[in-house]
């Protein structure tokens, strides 16, 4: 595999041609193979998989912002050295990005998002306006309310109705959101499925937040948690991604179209959905839009 001659402008840009799971953000997904360094470039010897045909590939690391290592991958120390030198992030992830096993440090030249994030979070007025923007995206319109507790209450009512509507769409008997953190398996099947789907979508948000160098602890809607901002981003996709994943899995199990456990069925659907809908790149776009950061032009 050789790099294409022209790259989309921008620090996180990467031409997608002939590169698996790549987009303008420079995300590169690899699975079932060994990553090493040969003659100063990355080399990936791949087994046959859904993401890539079996073969020996050269990876143009200069145009890659973040390498996502999926199941069945290994790498040499030289890979870490080369990527660290050139500011290329490496993260170990679940298939399709449904899990995030590492929290890589920010790469070189990625302070624009972090600086905008910190500035908006530190200013109470900007923090509220950013939270209102997040709520506007969820509701599809800008709400006039300027009190965060009022916005949270409105969002709670919207989610309660959304659970009911999506459950009806999939023909699922819904009795309300219930979750015992000390005994998660005690919940009914729909609630278990939502727990798993939410975990997978949050992992995708973890990857997106790390890819742009945003600050996970500094949330605008969520507070206190060490990944509060990750939860802010994941919640943007709760109605359109998380709930359909969960209720679709329950429907398949109840109709005996799947003999998998609820966790495995949700995971299977999440892998397919994340790839089909390009969920992580969409999250990255939202983060940069939230902070008014545009890296598509210039020579950064």
Could you walk me through the main structural features you see in this protein, from its secondary elements to its overall organization?
The protein is an alpha/beta fold and 300 residues long. The protein folds into 2 domains: 1-92, CRISPR-associated endonuclease Cas1, N-terminal domain (Ribosomal Protein L15, Chain: K, domain 2); 111-290, Up-down Bundle (Four Helix Bundle (Hemerythrin (Met), subunit A)). It contains 9 helices and 7 strands; from the N terminus they run E-E-E-E-E-E-H-E-H-H-H-H-H-H-H-H. It has helices at 77-86, 111-122, 124-139, 148-169, 189-212, 228-235, 238-254, 262-277, 279-290, and strands at residues 27-30, 33-38, 41-46, 55-59, 66-69, 73-75, 89-92. The strands form 2 sheets. The chain has a 4-stranded mixed sheet with strand order 4-3-2-6. Strands 1-5-7 form a 3-stranded parallel sheet, with helices on one face. Strand 3 and strand 4 form a beta hairpin. The longest helix is centred in the last third of the chain and has 24 residues, at 189-212. The two termini are 26 Å apart. Homodimer, forms a heterotetramer with a Cas2 homodimer. It comes from Tepidimonas taiwanensis. Mn(2+) binds at residues 155, 222, 235.
């Amino acid at each position: 595999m050789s790099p294409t001659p022209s790259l989309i402008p921008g620090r996180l840009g990467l031409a997608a041609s002939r590169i698996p799971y790549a987009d303008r953000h420079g995300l590169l997904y690899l699975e079932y193979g060994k990553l090493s360094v040969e003659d100063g470039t990355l080399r990936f010897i791949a087994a046959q998989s859904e993401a890539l045909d079996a073969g020996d590939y050269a990876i143009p690391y200069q145009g890659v912002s973040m390498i996502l290592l999926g199941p069945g991958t290994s790498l040499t120390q030289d890979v870490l050295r080369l990527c660290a030198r050139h500011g290329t992030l490496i993260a170990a992830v679940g298939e399709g990005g449904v899990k995030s096993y590492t929290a890589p440090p920010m790469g070189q030249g990625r302070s624009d998002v972090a600086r905008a994030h910190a500035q908006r979070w530190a200013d109470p007025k900007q923090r509220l306006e950013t939270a209102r923007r997040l709520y506007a995206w969820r509701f599809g319109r800008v709400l006039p309310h300027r009190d965060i507790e009022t916005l949270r209450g409105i969002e709670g009512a919207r989610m309660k109705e959304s659970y009911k509507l999506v459950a009806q769409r999939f023909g699922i008997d819904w009795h309300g959101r219930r979750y015992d953190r000390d005994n998660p398996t005690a919940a009914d099947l729909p609630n278990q499925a939502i727990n798993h789907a939410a975990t997978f979508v949050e992992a995708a948000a973890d990857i997106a937040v790390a890819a742009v160098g945003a600050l996970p602890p500094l949330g605008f809607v969520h507070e206190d948690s060490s990944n509060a901002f990750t939860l802010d981003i994941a919640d943007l996709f709760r109605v359109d991604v998380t709930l359909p994943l969960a209720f679709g899995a329950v429907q398949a199990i109840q109709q005996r179209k799947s003999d998998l456990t609820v966790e495995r069925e949700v995971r299977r659907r999440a892998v397919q959905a994340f790839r089909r809908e390009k969920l992580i790149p969409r999250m990255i776009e939202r983060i940069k839009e939230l902070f008014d950061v545009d890296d598509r032009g210039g020579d950064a």
